[in-house]
Amino acid sequence: MAQLFGKKFGLPVLFLAPEYLGSVNVYSFFFLGLATGSFIMAFHISSYIVMAHRYPFIVTLSKPFYKYALNNSVIPFAYILFYLYQSAHFQKEYELIGSLSIVYNLLLFLAGVLVFVYLSFGFFYFLVKILPRCCRQSFGKVKKTQPYRWLYKAIEKDKEKKVSESLEAESEKGDVETYIMTWRKIARTAYYKHYTKEHFKRVFYYQHRNAFIYVLFILSFIILRGLIKDYAHLIIPAAASFQIMLTVTILIISMFYIVFRNWTFFVLSLVIVAALLVSPAKILSYNDNAYGLDYSVSGKKAKINPFDHGNFASDSLQTIQILDRWLERNTDMQHPEKKPKLVVVSTSGGGLKLAVWTYYALSYADSCLDGKLLDHTELMTGASGGMLGAAFVRELCLRRKTGVSDFHPADENLKNISKDILNPVFYTYSMSDWFFRLQKFRYANKYYFKDRAYMFEQTLNRNLGPVLDKPLIAYRKPEQEALVPMLVLSPAIENTGAQLIISPQNVSYLTKTMPGEVIRNMEFRYNYRAFNADSLRFLSAIRMNATFPYVSPEVNMPGEPHLAITDAGLSDNFGYITAFRFIVTFKEWIEKNTSGVVMILVYENDRKKIYSIHKNILYRYIRPMGSLFDDWSFVQKNNYLASLLSLNKMLPGKFFMVPLSFGNGKEHIALSWHLTKKEKQILLQNIHSDENKKAINLLRGLLDSE
Question: pLDDT of 605-653, one tens digit each?
Fold first, then answer.
């Protein structure tokens, strides 16, 4: 039941098995407990502000807020019990954690909750008993300021309203006859009619003042905490970040309610709209950047022509020179009459699961073929996580061929690419992105804001080592010398749905359209040559190709018109069309110089497609939009496979499709940048499936029969 919401995207995993420093441990549960405690306190504070006056006997109690919260704890207590049960089951089933460790984890979770809750009550005690004595003189000066007078006037109106409602109770003790006085004692409510109006006002004044100060303190702490993004030890679990974000939301609403009461949501709406439309600091709305590009004032005003393109003939000849070098490297000098097969890899998008699967499947197949697979591969295309895995494989291949000394063992590389990316990104999102960005960093002599896009790239750097942290142009020479395959990224242009073709080579031929068509794909290096296109950080190119909503924000390009770049999966989730255009463009060279094309399809074989759905009222409303999102990859696959199959007619007897897929319909792996231990096991075990064994044997036969 707890896993019904967001299971497809791995949201339950973040809560039921939080991760800290790459592992599920007592620290991660303690941090989650602290965040849960903050959310519980926000729940109590907001409830107390809105509802406490409806229970007028509270004015007769000592520590009224503490006792109100104690009586208001049924829902939080039920949530904690439910969470403990669900988390224990999930840890055992999906994280493969032992019973004793599960107990320790959950005890630390409870400790975190209690620590935050009782520290908060201690803070209120400090506000009520100690602070007024220490800061009496300073507080007197604050009272004379105009902002305080305005706030005091607003609170006075609220107090008058609440006092009136409290004194209107029909019975002498209100509607409530008993309450929980302590954890072990239930008491009867006391008579309150003899209290003066001023006493009621004083109680409500302290209530509002203390809540207001607490809200400001928590918000200030979170804003200061959001400034620390680059220290791995200070990055808390994603679920904790999410709960803190909810905490902040509730506290802000509570703070507004103190002043505006029934007008709260109207005023908040006006503030948000005003910030979106006229905020000079772009607090709630800002453009995310591709690092390395020129976003200076002159750069922003520069014009680009989306319909302009490079020289098709010249660019094709340059790629043919690369193909000739590939041919030279893959020709058996003892049997020069034998022509090699050209391998093209198309890999699907799908977050971290496809990054891990693409890396592992290609590496494993290459090792089974004694390095022949990557040597014969000349093109890699695809989307999102799949291209991250492909880029990592290619970089490691380049390092091996060039003798770089920091080349890691295969098992360490596999461990690195399967590390969590979601926690640091969501931490940044919740701590600073949705407020405002305060920090900048320098890359290629230009300054950019630190946001979750920055954190996405920095996390990749931390996980993989800085092996991919280089400008796009750094791969131009290795590709030209055919040391590594050409890798073409194709994120979607949100404005038109076309593709932005990113490659260190001149590949304008991939932007060709049918005669008479207006909208065409754009070649990145050609169209953005005035914006330092060659300096584009390769990690930013990977991010642009994997712009998953709410994880990595869409990228806004410099120049006019302003183009927004999003996930490649929007236009071609499998890289089929890019591969198709490449093969068609060089069809004559392929027929003359190779014994055929082997296209490796790397994807998730989702056999859970449901053809029989039980319709209900809710289904009629959510299915149209859900169908568009859930079935998008199926629609693309069905449409684009027809183009690939047409290559059988263009290259009769010389075109072969080989799938390397995972998934058996029984075990689901979430679409996320986070994987559980069980999900990692599923991926690694799938390489030994009967289908993949046949695929690798087929590859061996195809490459050995040249």
Answer: 865 554 445 455 544 544 444 444 455 555 566 666 667 778 888 888 8
3-state SS class at 459: helix
Distance, CA of 558 to CA of 289 (rounded, Å): 8
What's the whole-model pTM score?
Answer: 0.84
Going by the DSSP 8-state scheme, the letter that residue 449 receives in this structure is E
Task: Please list the residues that pair with 342 across neighbouring strands.
Answer: 597
Q: DSSP letter string over 541-608?
A: HHHHHT--TTTSPPEEPSSBSPPEEE-THHHHTTSHHHHHHHHHHTHHHHHHH-S-EEEEEEEE----
AA letter at 652: P
- List alpha helices for 418-537, DSSP H: 422-428, 452-464, 476-480, 524-527
Q: Which domains does the chain have, with CATH numbers?
A: 12-260 (no CATH), 312-333+340-419+466-605+654-704 (3.40.1090)
The count of C-alpha atoms lying within 13 angstroms of the C-alpha of 425, restricted to the half-sphere facing its C-beta, is: 22
Do the Cβ atoms of 260 and 153 come closer than 8 Å? no
C-alpha to C-alpha distance for 277 and 686, rounded to whole angstroms: 50
Give the DSSP H/E element, type plus range, for residue 347: strand 342-347
The enclosing H or E element of 255 equals helix 238-260
In DSSP terms, 382 is beta-bridged to: 347
Confidence of residue 582 (pLDDT cuts 50, 70, 90): very high
SS3 for 375-425 is HHEEEEEECHHHHHHHHHHHHHHHHHHHCCCCCCCHHHHHHHHCCCCHHHH
- The token duo for 1 is 């039941």
Dihedral sign from CA coordinates of 605, 606, 607, 612: negative
